[in-house]
Amino acid sequence: MKTALRSLKRGTVGALILLCMGCSSLPDSRPAPVAASIAYSMADFARVPKYDAHVHANNQDPAFLEQARADGFELLSINVDYPAFPSVALQHAAAVALAERDPARFHWATTFTMKGFGSEGWTERVDAGLAADVASGARAVKVWKNIGMVEKDAGGRLVMLDDPRLSPVADRVQALGVPLIAHQGEPYNCWLPLEEMTTDNDREYFREHPEYHMYLHPEMPGYEDLMGARDRFVAAHPQLQVVGAHLASLEYDVDRIAAFLDRFPNASVDLAARMSQVQYQSVRDREKVRDFFIRYQDRLLYGTDLTFGPDADPTQFRQEAHAVWSADWRYLATGESQRVDMINADVPGLALPRAVVDKIYHANAVRVFAPAPAGGAGG
Ligand SMILES: [Zn+2]
Question: Could you tell me the pTM of the whole model?
Answer without folding.
Answer: 0.88
